[in-house]
Amino acid sequence: MKRNPLTLIVGAILLLVFLLLLFTFQVRRTEVAVVTTFDKPSRYIKDPGLYFKWPRPIQRVYPFDKRIQNFEDDFEETLTKDNYNLLAMVFVGWRISNPEQFFNSFPTGKPEAAEPALKGLIRTVKNAVIGKHSFGDFISTNPKQLKFAEVEQEILSGIKETASSKYGITVEFLGLKKLGLPESVTQKVFDRMSAERQREVERLNALGEAEAMNIRSAADRDRNEMIAKADATATTIRGQADAEAAKSFEVFKANPDLAVFLLKLSSLEQTLKDRATLILDERTPPFDLLNGFNSKK
User: Is 57 helix (H, G, I), strand (E, B) or coil?
Assistant: First the structure.
């Protein structure tokens, strides 16, 4: 019985595909893989490409996602250096860097399998690092006192080496995601923050009083200097005036009639400087100077 050539070709292609699926596997760019022979690791593949293997149950392939995985630990309570309870949570970015070590630690090859181990490691290091810092390094009214970057770096350094050597994991980054206070210490913290603000207010008031005192002292000093200069100038002017008066007195003493005449003339000038109508005896000084003057008609 003759077979259709098309059927033979399709059958051959299907057989080839089956053999390829049975004897080959692909490692993607985002993966690393472990090949086991009779359930024991025999090959560790880090580069992407097409590879050959024996079919099951002789060999099995465990692909691992080597992209960065995100992980958050629990929002747990810990103790600071000055015995304040603090709630803290951190986030971590990690990836598989050593598939052999990772497979030995987590045979399922799933990233979720590593989270409990990472959680325990982070909890231990986080509590130890926070225990070395005072409460003011995390919560303070002074931004310059906060040390988030230092705390994050210390926690990262504490877990990085252990995660790499023990689990085949490289921790790429770590940060503090959330901080909180238990209800038992919230009021104490508010009281402490109020006390810090009150001390700051008192410090600023003291600085203001000192500055005001300096300004008042400078003003008093300038005023005294100005008064002293004015008194000196006035004394000089009075001395000059007395000298001029003494000269005039000698002249008037030599000619008393001239002195009387000038006094009358000055009085008359002061009296008549404003427009006014006066009815007086012309013999009354200083109007007696007007005797002999007839008004023009």
Answer: coil
Helix intervals (H) in 50-147: 99-105, 111-130
Condensed to tens digits (0 to 9), the pLDDT of residues 73-113 reads 888 888 899 888 888 999 999 998 888 888 888 877 677 88
- The CA-atom distances, in angstroms, between 107 and each of 55, 113, 115, 125, 165 are 19, 9, 14, 25, 16
Fold of 69-181: Tetrahydropterin Synthase; Chain A (3.30.479)
Query: Which residues, 6 or more positions from 32, have their beta carbon under 8 angstroms from its beta carbon?
Result: 44, 45, 46, 63, 64, 66, 96, 99
What's the mean pLDDT in 16-24? 73
Nearest in space to 170 (alpha carbons), one of 256, 278, 84, 95: 95
Distance, CA of 199 to CA of 72 (rounded, Å):
38
Q: pLDDT value at position 151? A: 92
pLDDT per position as a tens digit, 139-190: 877 888 889 899 999 999 999 999 999 998 999 999 999 888 777 656 666 6
Instruction: Indicate the pTM of the whole model.
Output: 0.55
110, two tokens: 């799933």
Q: What is the mean pLDDT of residues 121-148?
A: 89
Pairing of β 85-96 and β 76-79: antiparallel
> Is there a contact between 55 and 19 (Cβ–Cβ < 8 Å)?
no
SS3 assignment, position 229: helix
CA distances from 295 to 55, 266, 286, 287, 290 (A): 152, 21, 18, 14, 10
96 closest CA partner among 71, 127, 60, 125: 71
Q: Where in the chain is the domain with CATH 3.30.479.30?
A: 69-181
CA 244 to chain centre: 73
